Amino acid sequence: MRRPIHALATVLAGALLLSGCGSGVTTPGGASAAGAVTVENCGREVTVSGTPSRAVGLHPAQTELLLRLGLADRLAGQAQTANRPLPGDVAPLAADVPVLGDAEPPSREKLLAARPDFVFSPTTYEFTAEQGFATIEQLTDAGASVYVAAGGCADRRMKGSVEDIFTDLGALGRIFGVQDAATKMINTARADLEAVADAVAGVRPRTVAQLYVEGGTLSAIGAGVEYDIVRRAGGKNVFGPDDEAFADFFVAQISPEEVAAREPEAIVFGVADEEHERTTREYLTRTFPDVPAVRDGRLIAVPSPDLLPGTLGNVNAVRRIATGLYPEALAE
């Protein structure tokens, strides 16, 4: 195996594919946040005084959560909108929300000019000063509370879980005083995960290689929320956190020979769009003709945005992969 490629995180974040969750849109329930609310986030305490009224979602996944919680009228901005369209059932709710950045997070000046009092981000990358973004400290000084998706915290990227999204929903419920709506969303997602778990409980786990193909580069994923998604789908990852290549980062460049040697029964791969899926299937079929996954036609494509931390799409990905692995068990 070759050294990890940190650039893949950016490639995955730039995927352009719809990631609907079907969780519905709720109206705020419960009392408004009274006084100050303090939540733990990425190893720091975030204190929010009063209910935010000018929130900004720095990625469509975070904007979607705010919309589904019934907070459209409290949004002062959305960003990275070109990286993933909002699901069709919530997109109209964001039609009048200012776009502060399309392919990239907003610049420091543009974000501060929106006068946010709450900023919700998928990772800490969106606060990198060297990229021209406002830092957490600068936003705090300007009166904004900053919350990073639990799965996007630096200390969670290698050991993230699908259930990190429940941490986010719980925190948002408290901060915005919409605990009832947050609890409803959590219960629905948990029920979906439990239904998949029940369906695959009695099957023999199939071995899975989770790959990403971009140009001439082949990468494997062996840690993080992506790893947990495959596990919850009933698959047995052939690459894992104990492998040296994934000691420091969740993804690493890998040789075709190493994949073939593991003889995965299924290959899960992230795709940015239909063309990317087509070219990836062609590559996998051409490169691994004798690997069981190709021989048995078990190549499972997943929209890349569904594999990112901090999105309800993680639940979609669990069911999609489980259905590809065990179609009989997951038949509707």
Automatic annotation (TrEMBL):
Transmembrane segments: none
Superkingdom of this protein's organism: Bacteria
Xref: Pfam families: Peripla_BP_2
Keyword presence, Signal: yes
Keyword terms of this UniProt record: Signal
Signal peptide per UniProt: 1-24
Domain Fe/B12 periplasmic-binding stretches: 54-329
Assigned protein family: Belongs to the bacterial solute-binding protein 8 family.
PANTHER family in UniProt: IRON(III) DICITRATE-BINDING PROTEIN, VITAMIN B12-BINDING PROTEIN
Protein name in UniProt: ABC transporter substrate-binding protein
Provenance organism: Actinomadura sediminis
Organism classification: Bacteria, Bacillati, Actinomycetota, Actinomycetes, Streptosporangiales
